[in-house]
Amino acid sequence: MLFDLYPASLVRDVKLHLSNGYRFHPWVEFQNEFMDTEGKFGSQDERLAARSACFGPCSYLDHNIDRILDVLESAGLGDSTAVVYTSGHGDNAGARGLWGKSNMYGESVSFPLIIADDGIRQGLCSTPVSVIDLSATIVDHFRGSWHGTRPGKPLYSIAAAGDDPNRAVFSECHAAGSASGPFMIRTARWKYIHYVGII
Question: Which of these, 162, 169, 164, 158, lies nearest to 191 by C-alpha position?
């Protein structure tokens, strides 16, 4: 069972927890009044079990990605198929006493973005990117075009250019539970978050 891959003895406790003196930013506190997920845990054991439950599906997805890659290889398509592994957002998984997403902390806005294609050398690119760059990558990959100016840059060209820690990416959230619109702009080193109506 995937849940058992992450027993409580291996699951690290969360960072910046309310029980250790951490205090919510006023916007997050206002948001948390709508969905206080942390307050629903009856014990530390339940909290750790919830973290195990967050990690288990990640391993399940990894397992299925392996199966897909194996099928591509056995069909002779491994070298001619571009593969992108990504998601729309991360999960707080208890960090700062928060669960789910809907904020601009790293746990929530970070996501896996791995691309494999013929001609791309293996490596890590530290340039900040966003899913908008993925949309530009898809158009570029299929040699398509679009009218007018669009945000985003193909990941192929970003990776080929080398690390650019000063590249800025933008994010905003207006999902359920948002106290107001949070907006984020960040580079590799710096992040600025603007909470509309709340300082």
Answer: 169
Beta strands, E only, the chain: 83-86, 113-116, 169-172, 182-186, 191-195
Give the residue among 121, 118, 181, 128 at the shortest CA–CA distance from 152. 128
Q: Per residue in 136-183, pLDDT tens?
A: 999 999 999 888 888 899 999 999 998 999 999 999 988 877 778 899
45's torsion region: left (phi>0), alpha (psi -120 to 50) or beta? alpha
Sign of the CA dihedral running 120, 167, 169, 193: positive
pLDDT beyond 70 at 199: no
54-92 tens-digit pLDDT: 889 889 989 999 999 999 999 999 888 999 998 878 889
Is 70 buried (19+), middle (13-18) or exposed (0-12) by CB count in 10 A?
exposed
pTM here is: 0.82
**How far is Cα 22 from Cα 93, in angstroms, rounded to an integer?**
16
